[in-house]
Specification:
Order of helices and strands: HHHHEHEHEHEHEHHHHHHHH
Number of strands: 5
CATH topology of the largest domain: Rossmann fold
Structural class: alpha/beta
Largest sheet: 5 strands, parallel
Strand content: 5-15%
CATH class of the largest domain: Alpha Beta
Helix content: 55-70%
Number of domains: 2
Length: about 290
């Protein structure tokens, strides 16, 4: 209680310091991260101290769509419903603490990719290790400096964007051979395996894929978007196009045959999509690789 009182009493000082963060927020890493996003990132704050919760929410509300929860149980429900871009959670809370919340988020396919920052008034190394062992991406001790949290948030989001580009590149280069070792590996491998096993089926759609991975359409959309920066429809189409490119490189099939083998029923649509992806028509692409 003493640590919490001391922290609450100093919130005014943190708030004053936060005004000096405007320059950082508008021209630093935040601008770079936001420029690559279609909409405001979603931030979920899980904190039973209302003063701290409101302070954090007000600080980030300009650049984030902020949501709050007063304990880990409520935080878990909101995280699964929202699929936020990042979570900031206190460790010590009633009903469910931040460490258990983090463990559950990191072991759930729907939320395993979401960065989690844990906050605690306890500074012992053993508690920090406990948090990190559950998969926490960062660990900050109270009373905190708001500039530290600000920097950590944008750094984690930037790291996720870098990882997202890596996932997308590896899928682009070799759809059936992902060199990924992370909690999301099983999810991506399952998605890719299902698409590839049904790739010749024009009827393959988002609903089928969502059922295969036991997610709603919305949750699957946010998961795929977070991992690859593509919608689910775009992701399925991109895998079809990668398979088409593989087939064209062999020179063993006509363009029409390749289109049908990759699940396209409209050859003209296939040609347009292929040129958008590779800046060459299927015929030009095939010809260049056969010559090589």
């Amino acid at each position: 209680m003493e640590a919490r009182y001391r922290f609450t009493a100093n919130i005014a000082n943190y708030s004053d310091h936060a005004e000096g963060m405007e320059l950082y927020g508008s021209s630093g890493k935040s601008a770079e991260v936001l420029s690559k996003m279609d909409e405001k990132p979603i931030l979920l704050i899980v904190e039973d101290n209302k003063d701290v919760m409101n302070f954090l929410a007000e600080h980030f509300q300009e650049r984030f769509t902020t949501h709050t929860a007063s304990d880990g149980r409520e935080g878990l429900e909101k995280a699964v419903a929202l699929i936020p871009d990042i979570v900031i959670s206190d460790v010590m809370m009633p009903n469910m603490g931040g460490t258990e919340l983090c463990r559950l988020l990191k072991t759930d396919n729907r939320t395993s990719h979401v960065p989690v920052i844990l906050l605690t008034a306890r500074s012992q190394v053993v508690h920090e290790l406990e948090g990190l062992e559950t998969g926490a991406d960062d660990y900050i001790t109270k009373p905190f400096n708001i500039s530290v949290i600000e920097a950590r948030v944008w750094n984690l989001l930037a790291q996720r964007q870098t990882l997202r580009e890596r996932y997308r590149t590896e899928i682009t280069l070799q759809p059936a051979n992902l060199a990924i070792t992370s909690p999301d590996q099983v999810f991506l491998e399952k998605v890719m395996a299902y698409i590839e096993s049904n790739i010749e089926e024009p009827s393959l759609n988002v609903e089928d894929l969502a059922k295969e991975v036991f997610m709603s359409r919305t949750t699957l959309y946010r998961k795929i978007k977070a991992l690859t920066n593509q919608t689910t429809v775009e992701f399925i189409r991109s895998v079809r196009l990668k398979r088409a490119a593989q087939l064209l490189r062999t020179g063993a099939h006509s363009v029409n045959e390749v289109a049908y083998m990759a699940g396209f029923t409209d050859v003209d649509y296939f040609r347009r999509c292929f040129k958008e992806e590779y800046n060459k028509t299927p015929t030009e692409f095939k010809g260049s690789h056969v010559k090589e």
